[in-house]
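Revision sheet: C-alpha cells.
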Amino acid sequence: MRTLLARQPMWVVRGAAIALLALTAICAAKAQMPGTQGQMSGSVPNQTAIGTSGGGMTDQLQFGTMGHQVERDQDAAYKAFLKEPEAARKIELGNKFLQKYPKSPFEERIDVGMMNAYRERREWKDAYHFGDSALALEPDDVDVLTIVGWTIPHVSNPNDPDADQQLTKAQTYANHALDVLAKLKKPKDLTDEQFAAAKSMRQFQAHSALGIVNFRRNDYENSAKELQQATAGNPTPDPTDLFILGVDLQNLKRYGDAAGAYGACAQIAGALQDRCKQSASATKAAADQSKTN
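Predicted:
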C-alpha cells in the first residue's frame, strides 16, 4: 500500500531514513569509496601514484653498510603492498611490513592502504584505527580526514556506547579537512582543472559528513545546510545526501524544497531511486496542499 511520507509522523520518516542510510553506506563501502581516487595529500594526486611518496632514505646513516639491501627489500615490500588488489592479502602484507620496518618513511602510506582495505571488508574499528595512525603521522592528510569523517556517520550505530563520541570525531575530522583544503596549495604535478576538481570532491565529502552527523543528532536545520553544500554544484551527487536532505527539509516542513531534493535523488539509479520517487510525489502533494490552506 502506497503511503504519503509527508503525512506520517516524523519519527517514522526518520527511522526509515536511518535504515536506508545504513543500507546505502554498506553499498558505498563496496562500490565507490570516498578517498580512493584523486588523492590530495601533499603532492600525491592519485592512489596509484603513492609509490613516489614517503621521502628518501640515507642508507649509510640509517642502515650502515647493509643499507642498500634493506632499502631495496623495503621498497619491494612497499610496491608489493600497493599492487595487491585483494583486501585480506593486502592486510597481511601491510601487517608484515609494519612489523619488519618500524618507523619506515612509507608508514603513513601503508596505514592509509590498510584503512582502505579494512573499509572494503566493512571492519570499521580497524579501518578507524589505521586512519588514526595515519593522521598521527600526517595530521593534515585530507584524504584520510574525509574518508574517516564520511564513514563514521554513515555506519554509526546509535546503540554503541561511544556513538556520540565517534560522531564528534567525524565532525572534527571533516571540519579540519575543510580548513586544510581552504589553505592547500596546488601540487606542481596537477593542472589547475585537476586540482580544482579534486579539491571540490573533498569539500563535497566533508560537507556530506557534517550533514549526516547533524542528521544523526536530529539537527535538521544544520544538516540541511551542510547537505546543500555537499550537493549543489556537485557533478556526481551522492543519492544518500539528497535523500537525507529531503528528510531534513520535510522535518522542517519545507515540502517544496524537500520535493526538489527527493526529485534529484530519483534521477539517480540505485537502491534509493524508487523510494525517492515516492517521497518526491508525497512531498509535492503536501506542498500543493499547504498552498491551498
